[in-house]
Design brief:
three-stranded mixed beta sheet, alpha+beta, GMP Synthetase, Chain A, domain 3, 3 strands, single chain, globular
Length: 92
């Protein structure tokens, strides 16, 4: 079962970055009993390939994602693992 948080995060990121490739893995089960882990969606591994990241530093890419998810980061999302690439980085 996909958590509501995962659905919201997926929708927001797809709307913000129009990705050519998108993968979200909910690793919350690996953190059972940890603070911040409730009903899933607390520990997310997100992989995005998007033209929005073309010519943008890694730090700026992370900031872009955190800005889109600022409300979720204050609530249900406890940790993000991010792999953010431009299409050119995949092709080379």
């Amino acid at each position: 079962m996909i958590s509501k948080t995962v659905e919201i995060v997926t929708q927001k990121l797809k709307e913000a970055f129009s990705p050519q490739a998108f993968e979200l893995i909910d690793n919350s089960w690996q953190h059972a009993g940890h603070a911040g882990n409730t009903m899933g969606g607390s520990h997310l591994d997100i992989r995005i390939t998007s033209e929005a990241f073309e010519g943008v530093s890694t730090l700026k890419r992370h900031r872009m994602v955190h800005e889109v998810l600022k409300n979720e980061m204050q609530g249900p999302v406890h940790a993000l693992e991010l792999t953010l690439r431009s299409p050119d980085e995949i092709e080379n």
